[in-house]
């Protein structure tokens, strides 16, 4: 079966021809959560931007359902982009401070009117109800509909960012360190939410993190990026297997997994 996402032999450099990404390849199946781990500077966010078609690779391709994203333009690119949404590390930076919650979560739908028809048909004429339904999906009460970002906790803000990201019913959610800015006690709640969404709406993930425990909890498979190269790919239950790359073992040991 064709994978949902294929990352094929991606190369990228910015200056001095030093490869930030060097021959990076992996696939993500439909409904799969793929964890990408690596220390700061290993190239994770660069790969996220390339996957989101926000940046072009120097070589290699990214295909979604067999379609090369970097060959698309205009309407076709817009149509493909709907299927890949993103959750960034810092929800405060990714939410518009001037928009109330309800407008924030349904804003993407204004750009894709067709998507609304396919979504919650019974409430689609009432934008506030649609927003409330999205909040419900991420465990937030409709009481928050008229709040502004500064009136929310960090965890609530990240939930709003997630509600917005799933409003277009994407196939793939790219999460770039989505819990790193949150208190430890809140991180686990957000990880649980990602896990619930995986099961309830069949969402697939490229889940980028430097937190091996989080990746082991959430992900089906894991790739390890080191200096822009994928040095290890394995099912997450085999994280502590003796077959792991020495670098993976050192990472696991460092956090006492
Ligand atoms: P990570 O997300 O794993 O911390 P990044 O992808 O952000 O890694 O960065 C990988 C490397 O690429 C770093 O050395 C960083 O300085 C460099 N880099 C990232 N983006 C740019 C850019 N726009 N211009 C120049 N160098 C960049
Ligand atoms: Mg990063």
UniProtKB/TrEMBL annotation:
ABC transporter domain: residues covered: 5-252
Alphabetical list of PROSITE patterns matching this protein: ABC_TRANSPORTER_1, ABC_TRANSPORTER_2
Keyword Transcription regulation: no
Gene Ontology BP term (one): transmembrane transport
Stored InterPro entries: AAA+_ATPase, ABC_transp_ATP-bind, ABC_transporter-like_ATP-bd, ABC_transporter-like_CS, P-loop_NTPase
CDD domains: ABC_NikE_OppD_transporters (cd03257)
SUPFAM superfamilies referenced in this protein's UniProt entry, alphabetically: P-loop containing nucleoside triphosphate hydrolases
Gene Ontology molecular function terms on file: ATP binding; ATP hydrolysis activity
UniProt keyword Transferase, yes or no: no
Record keywords, A-Z: ATP-binding, Nucleotide-binding, Transport
Protein name, per record: ABC transporter ATP-binding protein
Protein species of origin: Paenibacillus xerothermodurans
